[in-house]
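User: I'm curious whether this sequence folds into something compact or stays loose and floppy. Could you predict its structure so I can see for myself?
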Amino acid sequence: MTGYQLSDIASKIGATVKGDAACRVFAINTIQDAKSGDIAFLSNPKYQAFLTSTQASALILAPDMAETYSGNALVMDNPYLGFAKVAQLLDTTPDLASEQHSRAVIAASAKIDPSAKIAANVVIEEGASIAADVQIGANCVIGKGSSIGTGTRIYPNVSIYHGVTIGARGIIHSGSVIGSDGFGFANERGAWVKIPQLGGVVIGDDFECGANCTIDRGAIRDTVIGNDVKLDNMCHLAHNVQFGSHSAMAAYSGVAGSSSVGEYCTISGRVTILGHIELADGVHITAGSQVSKSLEKGAYSSGTPLMPNREWKRSVARMRQLDDMARSIKQLEKELAQLKQSENNNE
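Assistant: Here's the prediction. I'll summarize afterward.
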């Protein structure tokens, strides 16, 4: 392990060096657990107490924190962003494969770049296209006519159906399914008639989805995901969804069919977005919300915050009384108006 000098790291992440620019670091760690040779970061003030006890060889700090720190530091306005960039430099994640494995099943008409690495038991079907520097983990399936862009990493046990296009530098974690049928059925006298899902899925560059995500193919037109989109574990995008560039969605959230999410949106965990809804650019939705109408730019919340069970029971009881209370208020308002009218008539 050769590591990096602080001066080299500073030039790569846009920081300035305080202390020994020749100091070399080999791994990244938390500020409380770091040891000699490690670099750590501080962005949350609640960990500030560790500044005096950390054993890290260097820290990534904001300018105000760096003023009081006597050790080596990389100084920048956003230490958390610095942590992300340093973590990329020191990333030790192993490759998913070392070669194109002899036990991969690759159709004769598939186009595979020689630099692609394909693990055992991968199936690549007719007409599929795998670009340069792609890595595909064990037991993945790449369906007929699908294409995977340069540098994309597909972890083991991912299923990519036919007619799916994925851009460059993507990351797709294990268990995810892209291009499965959307939920489309017509009803004929109580029996369900399946609607074949004839569209595909088109995903831009720098996409990442966590484990066990599902992205449905379009019913007629494609499901489309923009560039630099990030999905957490166990997210669902239904058929025909349009998901804008630079937007992100946290775990257990889902977008129903034919809805669209604008660019630069953030959707927190366990959010439900109903079908045929449009979210403008820059919409931010907090955890546990249900979105039942289209939204303009801004921050939105719904749901009931956590409270002691006894208080929650009282609140539910009051909610059940709301209709009666509303009728009573309307009656009181009517009677008050009549009294005022009577007083005016008597003047």
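Summary: The CA atoms of residues 113 and 331 lie 76 Å apart. The mean pLDDT is 95.
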